[in-house]
Design brief:
This protein is of the alpha/beta class. It contains 5 helices and 5 strands, in the order βαβαβαβαβα. 30% of the residues are buried.
Length: 128
Amino acid sequence: MTASPQLERSPTPVVLVDDDEAVREALVFALGSAGLTVIAFASAEAALAADLPAQVCFVFDERLPGLSGLEAYRVLRGRGVDQPTVFITSQPKPDLRNAAAASGVPIVEKPLLGDSLLQAIRMVCEPR
């Protein structure tokens, strides 16, 4: 992610789920530097079990141990939780692409270059 102008602190926290500690820490730093509040988890199960604010934006890595990002997204929808979501992954498979397209969830491909993730978060978090 490239540096971007400082933003006001986002009223919508970003819930970042990525099992790779180095990636997770780098994204927490980069998104925080862009003015976003980030709540990070190493697994989908931990994020799903957490007591989160009512309004959040989920960023799920697709390839996670246990529940995948897509599976976690489906669990949330099954619970009636309809929060903005972004998937991050390398070489997304057709089932992820199809499910994401049908749900209007953007996929940002790794490696995360420039500010593509930040732009996707801003896009999904705009008032609906």
